[in-house]
Amino acid sequence: MAEVVIVSDKEEAGRIVAEAIARRVHARPDTVLGLATGSTPLPVYESLRESLAGADVSRVRGFALDEYVGLDPAHPESYRSVIAREVVEPLGLDPDRVHVPSGALEGIETAGERYEAAIAAAGGIELQVLGIGTDGHIGFNEPGSSFASRTRVKTLTRQTREDNARFFDSIDDVPMHCITQGLGTILEARQLVLLAFGEGKAEAVAGAVEGPLTASLPGSAIQLHPRATVVVDEAAAARLRYADYYRYTYANKPEWQRI
Ligand code: GLP
């Protein structure tokens, strides 16, 4: 089972996860980070500005989870733009070392394979940051995704397109397809850190952490990972059956056993 950390707010979650990332960067300046988009990881990236201040980040490498297919990479909501704006530029990372899957229509048939090869060539991902969709998706692995899946093109559900319509002028502007690391790809990262905030995520979080392993709730794949941490606020933790135990465990966690 994943370790669950229940925090009072997003800022606290951001600080805890940013510190964990900064420790990896200090220990290994060319560490490979798995980067998520969406609104959830933003407090982590904000906190990282402080946690990484003064650190040499010139060799840090990164791989985004996913990208829209057919959206101009220069569009402000392409994940390439989001990662550049929220992560690469504010933290001063080398843009050539931070990768986003290509959603360009030309060459899309081989884009997944090429992305997998780039991750493997980097020696794999050290710490993968994850959010979760209201339908339980991680990356863009919609319900039904195989636990063995690799980076590939998927069709977004109506629900995900509705959820993400807030970033576009209307739902019609949200692309229909995406390219995403597979659940099998994500499970190969050496550590997973999934964040979720707000009551809208409570059901997905409970399913991912305590529900049965099922492709119907792709986030439940994290239960297969030996080192997965879930950082949630009280609202997102509201449906967790063992919330008291998680609080008790975290309060009594040995100092050396940090996330
Ligand atoms: C998006 C992303 C996911 C993200 C999820 C939740 O569709 N592809 O990586 O985790 O949906 O988004 P948010 O964090 O904005 O709630």
Give structural attributes.
259 residues, alpha/beta, Rossmann fold, seven-stranded parallel β-sheet, three-stranded antiparallel β-sheet, 8 helices, 10 strands, binds 2-amino-2-deoxy-6-O-phosphono-alpha-D-glucopyranose
Give a short overview:
With 259 residues, the chain is of the alpha/beta class. The protein is built from 8 helices and 10 strands.
SSE diagram, text form:
Elements: E1 3-7, H1 10-27, E2 32-35, H2 42-51, E3 61-64, E4 66-68, H3 79-91, E5 98-99, H4 108-121, E6 127-130, E7 152-155, H5 158-164, E8 177-180, H6 183-187, E9 191-196, H7 202-210, E10 228-233, H8 243-251
Parallel strand pairs: 1-10, 2-3, 2-6, 3-5, 6-9, 9-10
Antiparallel strand pairs: 4-8, 7-8
Bound molecules: 2-amino-2-deoxy-6-O-phosphono-alpha-D-glucopyranose.
Q: Tell me the fraction of residues in β-strands, as a range.
A: 15-25%
The count of helical stretches stands at 8
Order of helices and strands: EHEHEEHEHEEHEHEHEH
How many structural domains are formed by the residues?
1
Distance between the termini: 15 Å
CATH class: Alpha Beta
The number of strands is 10
Bound ligands, each once: 2-amino-2-deoxy-6-O-phosphono-alpha-D-glucopyranose
How much is the average pLDDT? 97
What are the low-pLDDT stretches, counting only 5+ consecutive residues below 50? none
- Per CATH, the architecture is 3-Layer(aba) Sandwich
Helical fraction: 25-40%
Q: Strands of the largest sheet, in order across it?
A: 1-10-9-6-2-3-5
Task: State Rg.
Answer: 17 Å
Structural class: alpha/beta
Sheet of most strands: 7 strands, parallel
CATH topology assignment: Rossmann fold
Based on Cα principal axes, name the global outline: globular
